[in-house]
């Protein structure tokens, strides 16, 4: 029998096989990335391929055998369309080019828009395989597990695969129910962790992003990468303290049970989210075999039941910075008994697994450009670098960016002013409110706002308001609301002045001098931390800025630069990264290769502690100016006209110029 050539694209791998050999066998012979769960029985439909062409080999369909009964009778979940063939049934009868579509690869790139996933690498930690096991006989191998091992070796070339005690308990009932055919879940190609009767092609996992305020969770199909459901909830630990340092203080003041109460609260919330996700997707909790969790260091420690008090004081020692893998049931999650929990590595005492996940999502370590990644919150996590080097730090910005410490401040919720524009000549104000589509100067605004109301101003709103007041000359570059008769919106407020954004018979929302000072302190701390990383990296510029987190998604890039929160950069290259931590958690959930990659990357990130850096104070004082005392803004000047700087920059009276974690806490 003659040999024929089989060329696989896009890999370019090629081999010769005897005429009539199955395409799936040819792919396995040379390690082509071609999926199959059913071991070539024509059941799963995952090995679909197409006939292609290269120079010298055309794409005639008759280079493959005619469709057999296996293909004509196939009615699986993944229909055969557009001339596709099952690689397990199609046979090479002439030299042939086989195109392997992306959705037929094991390590596929799945593009999903919910939530914020793009080109997600699939390298499943848990893999499904279908096997047919010989029935027991009086004179044969007596043990089902041993006959299963023989079937795995014969049908999948898998040897020395352990079987967990839970799976061993379930094996015999599954074999009976499946007429000696079962689907196995195999973790890390070493251990059987679940068994189901007959053929099955779905298994699930959950990724958690555990923040100090909210917990986000995403249910994913581990085989396809599909995000089936997403949900979120307030972190119930808030009742023990709104910011993280308050929770650490609670633990310190309650040595008998403080850690346990905080741990129980977050674990219960995570488990309730699993209940919501499985109900929405219509699956069982026992279908979940993998869980990934990320969070800041204090959230990470409390989820695992570790006392976080060492993180409250210098030297901010972590219990461990390494990734952890453990039984998911050990933290109270009601899922499959063999489900595992994986937590990403941490970087430093105030730079946690959520930042590591954001790095995994944004991949600055693959870029030639110098990328700045900022997750803005009560404590801002900052990462700077490129493929040659990464440096990271946290900077204590305080809660002002979240609306706290602001006279009319509130969290981003319906009724909060989120966008502000001020006419530089007349000082007339127009704004938008969360939950109300028209702007305040729109014809439909009055009708639309009735159901929502105007209750305050959130973080993005106060940032734009202060930046707009600076651009209009109402706030000087040293942060003083000037005395002026330009508009009746500038009002006396005790010994200082305020600017009225909105007033009606019941409500007055204004920007006070203290509000401006709070924003100055917060943005100066953030900028100083960034500038410190630039010093250590040895660069006076950044090429790209990514603003992570929910807050980053709502910050207008130009106003963030105009306020002096972040360095000058091409405005077109400043963008929101969305929930980068949550996306990173999902990548780690779906890819063992990504886990190994980020563990190596995290180990080489250089940690900079702002509290011990002598230049932090210098950078902080310079950054108190709006936008900055000395920095130039060539990129910003292309889109905005900056007013002249004040001759002197005065630090705020009665306040230390250096913010500390004890003042503002950590997020």
Task: Describe the model.
- This protein is of the alpha/beta class and 667 residues long.
- The protein folds into five domains: 3-105, Beta-grasp domain (Ubiquitin-like (UB roll)); 120-197, Ubiquitin-like (UB roll) (Roll), CATH 3.10.20; 204-343, Nucleotidyltransferase, domain 5; 363-398 and 531-662, no CATH class; 400-517, no CATH class.
- The protein has a six-stranded mixed β-sheet, sandwiched between helices.
- A hairpin with a 4-residue loop joins strand 25 and strand 26 (508-511).
- Helix 8 (353-362) crosses helix 14 (580-590).
- It is elongated, with a radius of gyration of 30 Å.
The gist of it:
The chain is 27% helix and 22% strand. It has 667 residues and is of the alpha/beta class.
Characteristics:
Ubiquitin-like (UB roll), disordered C terminus, Nucleotidyltransferase, domain 5, 6-stranded mixed sheet, 5 domains, 667 residues, 29 strands
